């Protein structure tokens, strides 16, 4: 008998971008939060590049009203390109092409903002009957860390769903989906960060009710069964259909759900303080900016401590 065809590697990613971005008002009155620049590129471009690096070349954005500029960003800009070509400005031309060349980007509108689970459900037709990844725009994972690749490897090995986890401490857990995990790590081919079997999930629990201080950060690899689980999930915290609740349903149905505990560099660009830290860290590491920025930053920090003269 011929051996069964091995499953196709996952190629699809879903990025929900319909959120209102209230934490960045007033900027987000007119600019979607996903397009706020981290150094000189929109936060969303880093996310799409991360998906593409992991082999996910088909990206669906779940958008909402007032997000039209996101479509513009991933579209070609013939007038701008012609002008840059005429000037012979190859570097800027390449940077303009980066956003359109990196992946094939599709869009679907969420219609009503009814929660993350509801946003992911809009991807059902795009995804079909295969595993797919969900990347949330507020979490930037440093390009040198390979979280998504590892999660895809865990999913290929164990099936079911895989979520990214971070120990955020008991004092912060109420801002996240929190999970309970089995004590022992799961052995497997995947190496590096710890992998646990997830036994329970709860969306934004009060600190004293959280099953652990392990939080879901914004990366998921999901099986197509998640769509049925979402359809059966009633509104939960905040009156919204929560992806976390749908994942609990999968656990209860016996679908394996694993968590990869991330130990690399993550920036929460949805939070103002973390956003500032992300901009500074990434700027320091840039070859074109770091050599001038880092010495200035050192002087500036010394000045804050009262140890130096204020830099220009
Ligand atoms: C969402 C999820 C939550 C998760 C978080 C990660 O919440 O519902 O489970 O921990 O993303 O960033 P949000 O931040 O959209 O409220």
Describe this structure in words.
The protein contains eleven helices and 13 strands. It is α/β, with parallel strands linked by helices. The chain has a single domain (12-270), classed as Spore Coat Polysaccharide Biosynthesis Protein SpsA, Chain A (Alpha-Beta Complex). The strands form three sheets. The protein has a nine-stranded mixed β-sheet. α8 (225-231) packs across α9. The longest helix is centred in the C-terminal third of the chain and has 15 residues, at 290-304. 1-O-phosphono-alpha-D-glucopyranose (G1P) is lined by residues 116, 136, 138-139, 176-177, 203, 215-218, 242-244.
CATH class identity? Alpha Beta
Q: In DSSP terms, counting alpha (H) and pi (I) runs of 4 or more, how many helices? A: 11
CATH superfamily: Spore Coat Polysaccharide Biosynthesis Protein SpsA, Chain A
Q: Briefly note the structural class of the backbone.
A: alpha/beta
Tell the overall outline.
globular
Instruction: Quickly count the domains.
Output: 1
CATH topology annotation: Spore Coat Polysaccharide Biosynthesis Protein SpsA, Chain A
Q: Write down how many β-strands occur, each being a DSSP E stretch of 2 or more residues.
A: 13
Distance between the termini: 75 Å
């Amino acid at each position: 008998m011929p051996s069964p065809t091995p499953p196709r590697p996952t190629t699809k990613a879903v990025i929900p971008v319909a959120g209102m971005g209230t934490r960045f008002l007033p900027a987000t009155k007119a600019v979607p939060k996903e397009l706020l620049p981290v150094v000189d590129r929109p936060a969303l471009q880093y996310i799409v590049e991360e998906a593409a690096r992991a082999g996910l070349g088909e990206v669906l954005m779940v958008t909402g009203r007032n997000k039209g500029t996101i479509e513009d960003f991933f579209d070609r800009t013939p007038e701008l390109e012609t002008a840059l070509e005429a000037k012979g400005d190859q570097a800027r031309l390449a940077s303009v092409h980066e956003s359109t060349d990196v992946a094939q980007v599709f869009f679907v509108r969420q219609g009503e903002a009814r929660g993350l689970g509801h946003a992911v459900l809009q991807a059902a037709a795009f995804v079909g009957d295969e595993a797919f990844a969900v990347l949330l725009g507020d979490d930037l994972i440093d390009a040198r860390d390979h979280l998504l690749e590892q999660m895809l490897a865990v999913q290929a090995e164990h099936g079911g769903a895989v979520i990214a986890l971070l120990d955020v401490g008991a004092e912060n857990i109420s801002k996240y989906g929190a999970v309970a995990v089995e004590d022992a790590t799961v052995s497997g081919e995947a190496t590096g960060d710890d992998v646990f079997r997830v036994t329970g999930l709860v969306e934004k629990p009060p600190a004293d009710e959280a099953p652990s201080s392990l939080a879901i950060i914004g990366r998921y690899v999901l099986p197509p069964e998640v769509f049925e689980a979402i359809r059966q999930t009633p509104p939960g915290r905040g009156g919204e259909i929560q992806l976390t609740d749908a994942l609990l349903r999968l656990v209860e149905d016996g679908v394996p759900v694993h968590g990869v505990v991330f130990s690399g560099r993550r920036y929460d660009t949805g939070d103002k303080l973390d956003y500032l830290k992300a901009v500074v860290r990434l700027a320091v590491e840039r070859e074109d900016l770091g050599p001038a920025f880092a010495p200035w930053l050192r002087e500036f920090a010394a000045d804050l401590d009262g140890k130096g003269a204020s830099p220009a």
